[in-house]
Design brief:
Layout: H1 2-5, E1 10-15, H2 23-31, E2 38-43, H3 48-63, H4 68-80, E3 86-89, H5 93-97, H6 109-112, E4 114-120, E5 126-133, H7 135-150, E6 154-161, H8 165-178, E7 180-188, H9 191-197, E8 201-202
Parallel strand pairs: 1-2, 6-7
Antiparallel strand pairs: 3-4, 3-8, 4-5
Helix pairs in contact: 3-4
Length: 203
């Protein structure tokens, strides 16, 4: 109602991946009853900083008067071509308890000290991108994946961390030595996400 009263004609709703949360569907049901607005709901098929960057781009384009259809095309390009969202964790325990294990392999990983590097695929669910022996090697593997994808391209990088800010800072410095980083952001994981991954994680 407030949006309509302020004179807006279009509403673009960007939700967390429907493959990881019921939020998208809850919004969809509620939005069906809204009248007087042209509503476009966008399933980001990602989360956290991956979604943040999509929202930021949508805001920039909307401020220029870009049509919604063109904004959606730009978001698709960023989501499926120009971005990479990955994380590693020290234990799979929290993903299992939260039911967010998805297609992540490695039930036996905890026993063998195998640490997965996990991404959100095009369906918006967690899948294993690579595996490493030990946490340190998993972080190095993450760096290599970024180098392979972006090479010398200028990028914005957000590092999410659980309860080890110092290690996140070290990871940021390691990334800066290898990648062409325009903006580096360190962001503590929110409790909602932290409860699914545990405190010992980096994204």
């Amino acid at each position: 109602k407030q949006i309509k009263n302020e004179g807006y004609t279009d509403l673009l709703v960007i939700n967390i991946s429907s493959g990881l949360s019921g939020t998208f569907n809850a919004f969809r049901i509620e939005l069906e009853s809204v009248e007087g607005l042209n509503i476009t709901q966008y399933d980001s098929k990602t989360l956290a900083a991956g979604e943040t960057h999509l929202v930021e781009q949508a805001l920039e384009l909307a401020a220029k008067g870009t049509k919604v259809e063109e904004i959606i095309k730009a978001l698709d390009k960023q989501r499926y071509e120009d971005s990479l969202a990955i994380y590693t964790i020290n234990t799979l325990k929290y993903l299992k308890k939260g039911g967010r294990i998805g297609k992540v392999e490695g039930t036996i990983g905890d026993l063998l000290n195998i640490k997965p590097v996990i991404t959100v695929d095009e369906e918006g669910v967690y899948v294993t991108l690579s595996k490493s022996f030990g946490f340190k090697r998993a972080l190095i593997s993450m760096k290599k994946l970024f180098v392979e994808k972006f090479k010398d391209s200028k990028i914005d990088l957000t590092i999410h961390y659980g309860d080890d800010k110092e290690k996140a800072e070290q990871l940021g410095e390691m990334m800066k030595r290898t990648l062409n980083i325009r903006n580096l952001t360190l962001s503590e994981l929110t409790p909602v996400l932290g409860i699914h991954t545990g405190p010992d994680m980096f994204a």
